[in-house]
Design a protein that fits this description.
This protein has 89 residues and is of the alpha/beta class. 43% of the residues lie in helices and 19% in strands. The protein has four helices and four strands; from the N terminus they run αβαβαβαβ.
Amino acid sequence: AHYLCRSLYPVNNQTSVLIHAGAGGTGGLLIQICKKILKSPLVITTVSTEAKKKIALEYGADKVILYKEENFVEKVMEYTKNNKVNVVF
């Protein structure tokens, strides 16, 4: 997780992020690092169930998309006001 958001694509306080599988181990770490340490202004994540949505929100995600019920591309565009995100993990 650290390598992804520091070396692969350096996230900062101006970077909006989409993280797939936000309730999993790597996804959860990415949410916490991007939001709490790197101060990303918008962390969006995808999950498959309401239970996982709760976990992702506890990790600090700003927005959680239930990808089995919602079109994640449309939701990202809605949440970013059609500006998209800077990086997808």
